[in-house]
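Students often ask why we bother predicting the structure of a whole assembly rather than each chain alone. The short answer is interfaces. A chain on its own may look different once its partners are present, and contacts between molecules only exist in the joint model. In this exercise we take two input lines together and write out one structure for the complete complex. Read the inputs first and try to guess which parts will touch.
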Amino acid sequence: MGGTTPEQDEVRMIETGSNPTRFARGWHCLGLADTFRDGRPHEVKAFGQTAVVFARRDGTIHMIDAFCRHMGGNLARGAVKGDEIACPFHDWRWNGEGRCVGVPYARRVPLRARTTAWITMERNGLLFAWNDPQGNPPPPDVTIPEIEGYGTDRWSEWSWKSYLVEGAHCREIVDNVVDMAHFFYVHYQIPRYFKNVFEGHVASQYMRSTGRDDIKTGVQMDLPDAVTRSEASYYGPSFMLDTIWTESDGDVVEAKLVNCHYPITPDSFLLQYGIVVEKKPGMPDEQAQVMAQTFIDGLEVQFLQDVEIWKHKSRIDNPLLTEEDGPVYQLRRWYQQFYVDVEDVTPEMVRRFEFEVDCDHAIATWEAESREAAARAANAPA
Amino acid sequence: MRPLTCRRCANRVLVEKYSPIHTSVQWLGDARTDCAEFAGLAEAGADSAFVPTCGALRASIDEAVRAGLVPESRFGEPAPLPR
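Now the answer. The structure tokens for the assembled complex follow.
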């Protein structure tokens, strides 16, 4: 073989950059709404702060900074009294809008008795908080869609899990939305079709995939020769809603998968995911619930593999890509819009961009690899 | 990426092909208003952000590829959009 060019000999250096200290503007899902309606205050560490989340008597859920502006008591260690949260230190009462409305032992509430309050919203049984470092309310077109028929017989209950990820910025999980090849190595799927579209505050992924011959996961719901079609969209920086159709033996099962997170510090986040599965007419409730649980258990295995990668990898601002990798640079350009002031959002960040990956070479490689591994396993002495 | 004009509505985009199957499309304006197909969808209440492809643009791209106007290229980091 001939020699290499100087360019080929040059060592590629990783530009690690550094995690942003700012937290993204957008709706962030805090979890299943009902878990916050137990009459108790809940401490939530998010966006570099400590917050208390509590429900009023009318059932609405509120989120304010946890540290009492009086002497710094932690309101999450206090009690819900009526529609307010009471500090455990001196019983100061704070309402859901972040205003102190009473100091029982004092004649007057001091001026400036106001703390940080986040705008909250419930959708599809999930609780969301709006984070904006500039303090603006959410624009009307930036929201979370309703799942048609949620709360009716059409869907199973949420199977929901959360996992604390430390030592990684949440950009790592968002990168996955364009990462065609990791679906084989980390998630044991063979992508057959893969396309991304970014437009405005939405980043979508269209994928068709099948399982591997050698490694089976719950994501195929234990259905034989299942083909999975998936249409997933990030609504802003952190909340992905994914419609999944699992086709097997002429039947189709529809499911709605949520993959979301909220940042805790610049290098930690709470990863959450959940699924509801369509209940077919005549299908017993337990069967839909079992399918949801099988899927979410399969997903847990997969997410833990992601976590294992994130915990040990380097942050990398200059990934070295092939033509079979998805549009990581354009995705990050889109993601950047949530880390700058709204006035500084540029056309590059929001203009529509489409990228359809050619999966053919990868499919041929992966089919052969998983077929050979399955054959080896079948021939291995028991 | 190479400039391309949609034959249906004269929307201008940038296109790149790494292979016959791969396609990237960088839109230069607001997809909701610059594209006739998406504008029609918007009138019907649909948001182009959730539509994978504009059929007319896709047909225009395929035609340009057949005519040899979009030769295959290699991966390159994205350049700033033209002003």
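Check your guess against this: The radius of gyration of chain B is 13 Å.
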